[in-house]
Amino acid sequence: MQSGPFEGPAIVIPPALPEDTYSPQELMAAFTDIGRQHYVNPQDRVLFKKILDREGSIRTFETPLFKKDGNVLWAPLNARAVRDKE
Predict the structure, then answer these.
(1) Which of 12, 25, 46, 62 sits at a 20 to 30 Å CA gap from 32?
(2) Could you give the number of structural domains in the chain?
(3) Residue at 40 is within a domain
């Protein structure tokens, strides 16, 4: 797993992604606004973060994402919030 320094909570990216998607290193280097650059519908990123903040975890949040070639991939996203003790 790999964490990313994106705005908001840290993002963990599985290292074994399909070849036609971004590698964890590419995601962290290329994106300054993952919600607008990677999500087809930027509001899906907003909703994803709200659910994660409220529930602490999210399973199989399906959303369309842009692949490297600009085509769209429907992806089931899973996440778990890891918070400081503060």
Answers:
(1) 62
(2) 1
(3) yes
Residue 86 lies in a domain: no
pTM assigned to the model: 0.68
Contact 57, 79 (CB under 8 A): yes
Using the 8-state DSSP alphabet, how is residue 47 labeled?
H
Q: DSSP states of 5-46 as a string?
A: --SSS-EEE-S---TTS--HHHHHHH-S-HHHHTBSSHHHHH
Structural domain contains residue 18:
yes
Reported as a single tens digit per residue, the pLDDT across 8-54 is 545 556 555 666 677 777 777 777 788 888 899 999 999 999 999 99
Domain range enclosing 39: 2-80
